[in-house]
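Onboarding guide, step 5: your first structure request.
Type a short instruction followed by the sequence, for example:

Predict the 3D structure of this protein.
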Amino acid sequence: MPKMIFVNLPVTDLKRATAFYEAVGAVRNPQFCDETASCMVFSETIFAMLLTHDKFRQFTPKPISDAKNSNQALFCLSADSRTEVDDIVGRAAAAGGVADPSPKDEYSFMYGRSFEDPDGHMWGVNWMDMAAFAAQSEMANA
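The system replies with structure tokens like these:
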């Protein structure tokens, strides 16, 4: 069985956060949802658990940081094309997020953009041309 990752994010408004993540392409799994949590599925192995602050506090004694003012983690999703990168970031902005709070990644083998959700959590979306990356690596090692 492949390893799975569950990113737990504290959110101030669970309904708003759930709608935002649905807009960027995640699917809500009602099996793991209640009035304190929404399980948002990006793939068979990637999940974002959106938790009210009261629920989040059940898992840590540390204070919840304000993601709009400080950053502890950056999350990144892969995309199948440059177009998909642009589409996801566009949907994030249309759903109330901030498009491109970080500089774009523009390389011969990689393209990436970012968005910030309504609570300030930062996400990158990147596409990589693995064939171009391999060719570039071979030339560098020749």
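Each response can be followed by summary notes, for example: The beta strands are 5-11, 27-28, 37-41, 46-52, 74-78, 98-99, 105-106, 110-116, 122-128.
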